[in-house]
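All the exercises in this workshop are built on plain-text protein records. A record pairs a protein's sequence with a compact description of its fold. Read left to right, the C-alpha cells trace the chain's path through space. Once this layout is familiar, the rest of the handout is easier to follow. Here is such a record, shown just as it appears in the course material:
>
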Amino acid sequence: MSRTLLSLAAAAVLWHGSALADSISLTLSLKSIAGQGDSLGTTQHWDGVVKKGDTKVGNFYILIRTDQAVALNDGLAQLWLIFPSKGGNTAPESVVIEGMHDYGTTDFKGSVSAASSKYSWARGATAVYTPKSPSALNLVIQGSFTGVTLP
C-alpha cells in the first residue's frame, strides 16, 4: 500500500515539474556568415535579426568554434541575443546561450549561461535551434518562467 502511495506521489511531483516548463519561440534571420581558419580549427561568425513573429525585437550574434583534432561534425557555440534598452542611451540588454552546434543538421542545444539583469530569470533555461529555412533558425528557450518573456 505505501509503495503505491509513494509511486503516486512521485508521479505527481514529476507531472507538476513538467507543467511548469514554459517556452519562448524566436526566429533568427541570418544576415551574414563568415569564417576564419587557423592552425587549430575554424571560427564561424553568424549575425542577423531576432524576430518575434514578424516583428524585429533585436539582433543576434553566433560564434561557432571547431577543432581540427576532433573528428565530429560539430562545434562549440555561443549565441548572444541583443535587445535595445528601453532606458534611452544605455547599454543594450542581452541573453547569452552556450552549447553545441551540429554542422550536419544545423541543430543546436545548450542553455542560457548569462543574461543582463532584466532577463536574469532566463539563466539555466534550455535552448535549441533548428533550421527554419536556408536563412533562418527557430530558437526555443524553455524553462520555468511563467508570466515573463523576451521582448
